[in-house]
Predict the 3D structure of the following.
Amino acid sequence: METDEEFKRKTLFEQYKLYIEMADRISQRRAQTNQFYLTVLSALVVILSFVVSNHLYQNFLNIVIFVIAFIGILLCIIWYYHVQSYKQHNKGKFAVIHEMEAMLPFAVYKREWEILGEGKDKKIYLPFTHVEKYLPFIMAMLYIFLIICAIKSSVWPDQIVSCVTNCTIIK
């Protein structure tokens, strides 16, 4: 018959395995979220390129560009907060994992983190969040550029098409 201590150890190990799987699923959702925002933000640029290159909405082109760019910037802001939320969530998950590992024979994640220098030395390990958090800002720069083009076009309407179509990022 199983002792109370053996039962607790088995239960802890099963919870640990489940929790590790949940942490992995969060990482997968995080990657899917980044892919979603990159896809939507890229699609907005493609739509804008189509509108400009096919001379659609010529009478309101600067308004169309401004609206698309504004939506793009809003999405970048939301994306940034999603990145931060996932970072905080993972931090909490791994704190619990480390607590659970303290009760197990070997703390694999704690040891891995130690080997990686706890993310403090970028030569040893550069945490993905350190790179990931800049993606929304990089994409936002494109949309800020488009807003500048839209504002500029309200002063110089003939410049808007050349401003957008000559942008090497869009081509």
The radius of gyration is 24 Å. The mean pLDDT is 85. The first helix runs from residue 4 to 53. The chain is about 75% helix and 0% strand.
